[in-house]
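[Discussion] Sanity-checking designs against the backbone

I'm trying to build intuition for which residues belong where. Below is a structure token string of 185 positions. I'd appreciate it if someone posts a full sequence so I can compare it with mine line by line.
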């Protein structure tokens, strides 16, 4: 007769996918952890179905045009004035993407992630989002009323509120669809 196991049954059944090792936590703790994760993903609705690596996203967006008059006008009027180190919003987004898998730089710390979707939903600069949208609709010849969106966000006093309105109008899934479209002559 085999000796009884000293490991509780709940720790033998749970395994970590990345290491193949047992997780020693009771079922109630596992449920709480899953509950927290579920709530976190409700904030980012497109994470599971439509995402890409943030470095791949940087590669694709770094090839887009910087000739974006509407977003440049918004940037000059409402964009960041202090500590501006970039020459274009394309450069700003590309460098932001490159540092996203790390813990950040100087005063801009965050949890490392490889998710372009997560990065998109955490951006707090509307001028970056407007540049991205305008660059995509210009290069891909997509019909989109960017002027009315800019008029709507000009009323916002906080950058985070403006970003929220932009993302409600153009979620990350739409950005991914636009990136996948072939360039039209």
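Best answer:
Here's mine. Compare freely.
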């Amino acid at each position: 007769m085999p000796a009884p196991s000293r490991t509780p049954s709940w720790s033998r059944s749970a395994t970590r996918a990345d290491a193949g090792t047992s997780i020693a936590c009771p079922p109630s703790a596992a449920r709480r952890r899953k509950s927290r994760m579920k709530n976190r993903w409700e904030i980012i609705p497109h994470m599971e179905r439509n995402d890409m690596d943030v470095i791949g996203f940087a590669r694709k967006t770094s090839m887009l045009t910087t000739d974006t008059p509407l977003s440049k006008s918004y940037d000059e009027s409402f964009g960041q004035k202090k500590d501006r180190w970039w020459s274009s919003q394309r450069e700003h987004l590309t460098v932001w993407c490159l540092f996203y898998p790390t813990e950040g730089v100087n005063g801009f710390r965050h949890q490392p992630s490889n998710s372009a979707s997560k990065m998109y939903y955490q951006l707090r600069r509307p001028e970056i989002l407007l540049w991205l949208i305008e660059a995509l609709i210009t290069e891909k010849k997509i019909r989109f009323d960017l002027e009315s969106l800019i008029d709507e966000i000009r009323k916002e006093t906080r950058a985070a509120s403006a970003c929220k309105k932009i993302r409600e109008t153009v979620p990350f899934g739409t950005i991914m669809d636009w990136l996948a479209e072939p360039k039209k002559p």
